[in-house]
Amino acid sequence: MVLQHFGLKHYPLGKAHTELWDDGFLDRLNQRFTWLLESPGVGLLTGEAGVGKTAALRQLTQALNPHRYQVIYLAETDFGRLDLYRSLALALGLEPVHRRAALWRDIKARIQELADGKGVVPLWIIDEAQNLPVEFFRDLPAFLNFAFDSRDLMIVWLLGHPHLAHTLERAPYAALASRIQVRLQVKPITERERFKDLIDHAFSQAGAQHTLLSDSGLELLRQASQGLPRQAGRILKTSMQLAVPKGLNHLPDELIQQTIEELL
Description:
The structure is a single chain. This protein is of the alpha/beta class. It has two domains: about 40-185, P-loop containing nucleotide triphosphate hydrolases (Rossmann fold); about 190-264, Helicase, Ruva Protein, domain 3 (Orthogonal Bundle), CATH 1.10.8.60. It has twelve helices and five strands. It has helices at about 1-5, 25-40, 55-60, 80-90, 100-120, 135-145, 165, 175, 190-205, 215-225, 230-245, 255-264; strands at about 40-45, 70-75, 120-125, 155-160, 180-185.
């Protein structure tokens, strides 16, 4: 009913939003993403929660040839390292064994089988990577060592909060840091003009035919969301839901303020 009231296809900046706004960062990420497709290795993408890391990687993977790349997405990272490798084994069609050494052998054999028999490269995207156990960070370089470290058969993307990058700079993780071929940070969209462009794009993609926010309402949204698209989307969705019972076809400043007070 809310979307119909405003004549929209989906909520601005919601999960149904497929064409992401880009002022250059996505192009740069796409370039680095392609580098790892051509030369498999480890990529590190960091940014605050809600800034759009997962959405960006999801958009890039949608265009991949499934006969060439097997995308494996993992977001449940607050577990032991054995659980993480078991989830990878399941994604690769294996029945996980209990001993880590045997589990590693099975997984690596399957990865080599995919490469040599089918020309398929697994692409493992690990979200919320700041929650990974420290043992996993120490293990990963050895796990990625194939054929006397002469072959790169798997792509790993680590997505996490900015402090993840600082964690991986510590001496115990030097082996993993040396394997990271791409390092990028997604930053909040805090500048006024850039934020306005983001919101205009979001409403346009949602099918809006007219402006729903005043300049002052947009500024309220920018400050409250701190430039984080997910936060801005939450505020807009709730504001629209509050506007319908009032019969409003726009989002006045006082409604935006009410929403902010309720959510934040």
